[in-house]
Amino acid sequence: MTNRLKDKVAVITGGVAGIGLGIAECYVAEGAKVVLTANHNVEGGQDAVNKFGEDNALFVQQDVSKEDDWKKVMDATIAKFGKLDIMVNNAGIGGQSGPIEDLSLEDWQKVIDINLTGNFLGEKFAIKTMKAHNDSKGSIINISSVAGLIGLPSVPEYSASKGGTRLLTHATALNLAQRHIDIRVNSVHPGWIDTAIIPDNMREAVVKTIPVGHMGEPKDIGEVCVFLGSDESKFADGAEFTIDGAQRA
């Protein structure tokens, strides 16, 4: 522990399992206070708070596509910790694999609502809260995907949501910088990360596509997010950080 995030408060959506929990573990280890959200995994949220301690963590149930839930999260964050330094927009879902002509509008909209609209709302409410409670300073980290850089043919809705997150990041970073508001916005693009979302029967085939010969771990994303949340990254803004074991190299 080096206290790289000492005295900083972070909201991490989807922060109770997988990549989100990996980010939270790295943040708490570096001295941050964390507010973790999830829509369905309430038990995981309670387990995470027990693990990190109530002085360091808070869980709030949230649907990231709903404005009222974002208000609830920000109110709870300020009530417990008094400010917001870091917003990690991590919550997301996968798509329905198959031809685009077979994709229903309902399935398309569900992915867009959570993965892209959720990130827009996260940026919106984080900026408002940072302006009101943190002297208009902070760091916003949007978790995209390598699918937001190259597209995956089997999941067009997922690719569109992650590509939209990439350009949302660019536009927001530039908008804030041009207005001389000291809130940085960057995107992180994970490749294959070893989480429960990957079926056991796919793992061997997945590893064969990764040049370094193994999947990443949630903490690999967490450590990059520590850098982006810390003051060490003060000149990183509107940038993309790809962590994929050389898959796109």
UniProtKB/TrEMBL annotation:
Alphabetized Pfam families for the sequence: adh_short_C2
PROSITE patterns in UniProt: ADH_SHORT (PS00061)
One of the GO biological process terms: bile acid metabolic process
GO molecular function per UniProt: oxidoreductase activity, acting on the CH-OH group of donors, NAD or NADP as acceptor
Highest taxon, organism lineage: Bacteria
Keywords: Oxidoreductase
Similarity comment: Belongs to the short-chain dehydrogenases/reductases (SDR) family.
Protein name: 3-beta hydroxysteroid dehydrogenase
